[in-house]
Amino acid sequence: MGGAHESMEHSEHASHAAGSNKKIALLIAVIALFLALSETLGKSAQTSSIAKNVEASNLWSFFQAKTIRMTTLRTAAEQAEIQAASVQDATQRDAMIKRIDDWKKTAARYDDEPSTNEGRKQLAKRAQHAEHDRDESMAKYHHFEVASAAFQIAIGLASAAIITSMIALAWAAGLLALAGIGFTYIGLFAPHAVHLF
User: Fold this and answer.
1) What is the spatial distance between Cα 150 and Cα 26, in angstroms, rounded to a whole number?
2) For 147-195, how does the pLDDT look when each residue is reduced to its tens digit (9 = 90+)?
3) In angstroms, what is the C-alpha Rg of the chain?
4) In this predicted model, what pLDDT tens digit does every residue of 100-156 receive, in sequence order?
5) Do residues 151 and 30 lie in contact, with contact meaning Cβ atoms separated by under 8 Å?
6) Element of type H or E holding 82
7) CA distance linking residue 102 with residue 76, whole number of Å
């Protein structure tokens, strides 16, 4: 009779453990879903950050090229003005003055050209905007990486809970998963709210 009672008790315990294991397995599946989401968002943010960094670098290079051209034209115009003052022939002097005016207009266009959005002022503004976007994408990336780490650790803890039957590990996994969800939320909607790096 003791054997039947013991067997029945063992069967109830195994049934209870199987029910807990199913719940923990479901927890692992949900955490894995959030892990996949945070990894995808992290990769997207990282790619965006790299693209915006390249864009900002290109715009600053274009800005520098415009600065060099503008400086060269202004220097040439200043030197030509000095030379024009000593030219006796009125026709030649008028031609030089016209050339100087053209150089000054071109130099001014290199500095500010709103029609094409490619003057130095516009290029600087565009480059700063690209840098801002880069920084925002990088902040998102860091939050998604922290979220992914929390999800991965949570999966490990939940797996250990199945093996050891320690429910405290499953609770810890659940709390870490909530922290991961929080960092994913911050990365999506307020990447500068928490400064990680």
Assistant:
1) 17
2) 999 999 999 999 999 999 999 999 999 999 999 999 999 999 999 988 8
3) 34
4) 999 999 999 999 999 999 999 999 999 999 999 999 999 999 999 999 999 999 999
5) no
6) helix 2-86
7) 11
In the numeric block, which tokens belong to residue 113?
A: 């050209």
Report whether 157 contacts 72 (CB < 8 A). no
Cβ contacts of 170 within 8 Å, gap of 6 or more: 20, 23, 24, 27, 157, 158, 161
φ/ψ of residue 127, rounded to 5: -65, -40
Q: What is the dihedral of CA 60, 62, 67, 68, to 10 degrees?
A: 120
Look-up of token digits 């999506």? 188
CA 143 to CA 13: how far, in whole Å? 42
Q: What is the mean pLDDT of the chain?
A: 92
pLDDT of residue 1: 47
Closest CA to 151 of 31, 65, 40: 31
Running DSSP on this structure, what letter comes out for residue 136? H
Compute, in degrees rounded to 10, the torsion defined by CA atoms 52, 58, 62, 63.
50
Instruction: Name the 3-class secondary structure at 191.
Output: coil
